[in-house]
Amino acid sequence: MSAVIELRRTDLDSDAAQHLINALNAELTALYPEEGVNYFRLDAEDVRPGRGAFFVAYVAGAPVGCGAVRLLDRHTAEIKRMYVAPEMRRQGVARRLLEALEREARLLAVTRILLETGTRQPEAIALYLRGGFSATTPFGEYKGSPLNTCMEKQVGAG
Asked: Count of domains in the chain?
């Protein structure tokens, strides 16, 4: 039986958000110990209403995953800080988060969603491919990094 997943739009500085972001940062630092290859920046301003959103996924009242979407420009949004606790992976949490972030991007009236994940994260790459994303050229701070996989998806506005 699959877990009941509740998604809540949450402030970036909430305890649940900070706990999950700290776990994500620790995991990424272990996977990518090379200097200068991790991009942890996300500001509260990036996810305020009208500019983006930050969601926390809960199962049985416990925070188990998170993700954000932020506007890059009036046509493009970026998905950031996707994370699911290891013990909750393969239970649909990431898929539900991705769906919620895409809905939020559509509400922002964008026509394209970008994201970045690392080359050492095949499960994440597979999730995004199943979700309709495809490889694209590196953008923004990810240009020139051999350990990043950048992806995009064209979406209808509204």
From this structure: 1
List the 5-9 sheet strands across, edge first. 5-9, 52-59, 62-73, 76-84, 112-118, 148-154, 134-135
Consecutive 10-residue runs of the chain (158 residues): their mean pLDDT? 85 95 94 77 90 97 97 96 96 96 95 95 96 93 86 81
Q: What CATH number is given to the structural domain containing 147?
A: 3.40.630.30
Got the DSSP string for 69-93? EEEEETTEEEEEEEEE-GGGTTSSH
151 close to 128: Cβ distance less than 8 angstroms: yes
What is the Cα–Cα distance from 54 to 154, expressed in whole angstroms?
21
Q: Which two tokens stand for residue 25?
A: 């940062």
**Cα(82)–Cα(115) distance, integer angstroms:** 10
